[in-house]
């Protein structure tokens, strides 16, 4: 599986240009995820994971980058961090997840969750729900704090109850 080193898009076969951003791939070598899985620094990051999440992998890679003195490895790690943070980063992480489960001895379930870690997906769903509730409350507060909102509220209070 190849990904564009510029935008992180999963590439179809072996194109000359990235179908998403147009990067000339003959000048920049796409990142082969299977080659990355053979890198010692990447395997070390996977072995030290305590949770099968993208956030944990990103954190481990940042720590590895800070700790490593080899400039070439730092650049490889930086490239992987960029790809994982790109718009296609979730897809790239999911491609890593099979390898992560193999190394850690975890079981990847058909729904994309890892056995024993299903609670993580529930927490993510709850966080998204809480975030949406907070946004709705913030929108309400912005609406009533604007001049138009204040006027609407005053006019509403002047109406007779139905």
Walkthrough of the structure:
This protein is mostly helical. The protein has 2 domains: 2-110, no CATH class; 117-162. Helices cover 60% and strands 4% of the residues. The protein has helices at 33-36, 40-47, 54-67, 71-85, 89-104, 118-145, 147-158, and strands spanning 2-3, 10-11, 31-32. The longest helix is centred in the last third of the chain and has 28 residues, at 118-145. It is elongated, with a radius of gyration of 23 Å. The termini are far apart.
Structure at a glance:
The chain has 162 residues and is mainly alpha-helical.
Give a topology summary.
Layout lengths: L1 E2 L6 E2 L19 E2 H4 L3 H8 L6 H14 L3 H15 L3 H16 L13 H28 L1 H12 L4
Antiparallel strand pairs: 1-2, 1-3
Pfam family, one: Zn_Ribbon_1
InterPro entries: Zinc_ribbon_dom (IPR026870)
Protein name: Zinc-ribbon domain-containing protein
Summary keywords:
three-stranded antiparallel beta sheet; single chain; mainly alpha; 162 residues; elongated; Zinc-ribbon domain-containing protein; 7 helices; Zinc_ribbon_dom
